[in-house]
Batch of 2 targets.
Target 1
Amino acid sequence: MIKAQRGTKDIFGDEIATWHWIFENAKNIFQNAGFNEIKTPIFEATELFNRGVGDSTDIVNKEMYTFSVGGVEKKETSITLRPENTAGVVRSFIEHNLNRQSPPQKFWYFGPMFRYERPQAGRQRQFHQVGIELFGIKEPTADVEVIMLATDFLNSIGLNNLTVELNTLGCSKCKDGYRKSIKNILAPYLNELCNDCKIRYEKNPLRILDCKNENCQKILEKDEIKEIILKDYICDECKEHFSELKNYLDELNIRYSVNKMLVRGLDYYNRTVFEIKSEALGSQSAVCGGGRYDGLVEMLGGTSTPAIGFAMGVERLYNLVNKITPQKTDFFVVSNNTKEAIKLSQKLRQNNKSVEFDLQKRKFTKQLEKAAKTAKYAIILGDDEIKQNFYSLKNLASGEQTTIKNFEELINYYAK
Ligand SMILES: [Zn+2]
Ligand SMILES: [Zn+2]
């Protein structure tokens, strides 16, 4: 027997109703705010992620599904299964010259991503993300729009008790000063940092604050280091941006706390970064991560365009939400006359009703048993019904049976 690959999962049966429900809620919330769905390819040039996610990240260094393809195009190219979707959406934004249209450009997406990680609860190698990206707005209105949509979406799927953790990483002007201070204060401890952090120290020292290594954590907790981390380095413009955002969140009664250790795992963020935690199931788990990436469009070859977005892992959301009970079909046509059953089923489906009929020529009673399990109503088409042109409609929940004169009445009766 050939089994599914480690870290991949078949999603079917009772689970599908909840997946659809999560998707529909995302679609409603984001489309109501003028966001358009975008479906970018599952694979992209490897270089896109090296540059667009950042080569100091675990994603790029350890977790990408990268392979060479030659074949028909003769030239060997390195392609990678997308580990996240921001880089792909930015690539698309640049390729289609969307910067020429009047801002903002607003997208949402839902789809599979791929990371070679150790599989654990809620973490698959093929997993799904839902997210949004908003281009062209440098004002904090974009930040609040994005955070508001994240919390509205989470509320819509029943995740309340949310806390938004916020930080500002500063802009190109003030970020460097902060980096330098972090580097200076950590310099004496360089040898004690984990191997990953030694590389981060050179490439993106802020990411050291994010390290899960116990030893690194201990170093960061030293008073003289904490003091530097918690000190305000950001410039006046960044400060203004951040406080405007906080004011908007206050107006909306969105609960937030500032966490200076929050830097997010990707290299490209600047100014606002955020995570949203949910208290669902008593656990304090992050269900959403996002931030501003004003430099990324330009870094990937486009014209300078501010942007902000977030992503959420759908498997994690799935684990937290109340599951949806799959809907029963409207009708099951119970009949020994298969031809009539098929014809009626088609007619009902063409009238936008969900209908099944017996595909196995089973006995009447067997058909009724099946109907009771899967449908709301049984339409009984016995010899009398066919001969005299009427339907017997059985409510399978109450057992109540009604005589229906013709097709129009059937449709109307059900609509009521
Ligand atoms: Zn700044
Ligand atoms: Zn470390």
Target 2
Amino acid sequence: MISKLSDLFKPIPGTEAGTCIVCGFETSRGHDIDLSDNFTAWNLLQEGDVICEHCYSLLKNQDYRRKSWIADSQGVRFLQRGEVLDTLLNPPEPPFAIYITRTGKKQGFLHLVNRLNYSRDRFFIAFDDSLIFVDRGRLSEMVDVARRARELKFSKAELLGDIRVKHWEHRELCERILSFSKNPVWEVVVYAVE
Ligand SMILES: [Zn+2]
């Protein structure tokens, strides 16, 4: 049964029994707690004494930290930056989870451990070390605005609110950009738009 993020990852069984510090579930097939030096997300762990066979799989493969990915009942697939917006606009059948990283340095996907998505219209994603709520209708408006602005040669800095005078000939577009500029979803859109 799929009840948490790491259930979407192929288990690597161990021999230790206890409570998992990542997902909080009990297991008899866990591993000793031995996190690599790259591990930075101590604040996202919970009380326990092992890492379960599912969370071990999620933490063991460093590509899950370095790259963006989507996980669903079919498994895990890495995402290129150019695929991010279409993936968010057309998420798969639930349950699913989506991690987007710019830096490849954090284990921000741990925000999603007990937060699998069951709706394609309103869902959470992790973006580096932030947890972000996405409303798909609102996202679609933002993607429209971002794509139109990019066609008109707006830079990414301008999309983040630093708009040069010459672009004010597109006043309505500029105003919409400014209305989004403090929104965390907009930050994801600006990162991912071509
Ligand atoms: Zn676990």
